[in-house]
Amino acid sequence: MPVNTGSLKAQRQPRESLGVWLGRYYLIISLVLLVLISSILSPRFLSQENLMNIAIQNSAVAIVSFGMLYVILTGGIDLSVGSVVALAACFTAGFLEAGWSIPLTILAVLALMLIPGAISGGLVAIGKMEPFIASLAMMTIVRGAAYMYQVGSVRVIFNNAFINGFTGNLGPIPVPVLIMALAAVVLHVVLKYTTFGRKLYAIGGNRDAARLVGISLRKNLFAVYMLSSVLSGLVGILMAARLRVGTALVGQGMELDAIAAVVIGGASFAGGRGTILNTLIGAFIIGIIGNMMNLMGIAAYPQMVIKGVIIILAVLARRG
What we know:
- This protein is an all-alpha fold and 320 residues long.
- Helices cover 77% and strands 2% of the residues.
- A hairpin with a 2-residue loop joins β2 (169-170) and β3 (173-174).
- α8 packs across α9 (195-205).
């Protein structure tokens, strides 16, 4: 019996179109569904105070995740971001305590946070060390340096101008959220419209081919690790203002949240795939899940288990 291929194509087309549509917008759909479920599970979720807390908390995770994305695009990983956040927070409090001006403190902290990234980038690009090992070592070194600088007690910040400048609002929008939005726009433009961005995708897509066409692996690997470190330093400054102290305890587990945000956003650990917008959505998905677990009274350790399971499921879903 002859087969009507035209009718088969007509039957397949809606299913294929739906699959493409779901693949394109699955993150937004997931975020909307998560918000709906959270609002049903807890009436406090949609309160203005809670939504503001989610936005402020996730702004820090998102900024760190942007730097993590740049590193992962090259096929690397940066486990030191949480430790860099802690060290930056300690330096910020210490410099302000010593009487430094706010602009000088910010510039000095960001400049100093270039160092961990430069060392990690050097170990990977020049020393040919695996990114996991290099950044793991740097994570330990930087966290230890933060404890040494703290000298056993937290450094309290009394500079109200600094605190108000980074915790206040510009109009109706909190300053940390504005900084996150500005970082997202700039980093998105760099990835999508500059030669540097295209080189990162090329390095992650096929490192040997990138080398053959003249792309400098060393220079670009140095750049992404230093960028990740500086963005983490910026978050350390924001955290110091929010907590009003500099302590080596901040930033613990932030590397897990950043990796989860990047992976949920569809990036590949092999490199060459990922966007700032998807990473931003991934960060808010992680943040909303954490906020919902807090509202439901779930303890910190089970939350770590759940976040780990989410990373596994996200990777499996992308492979499927």
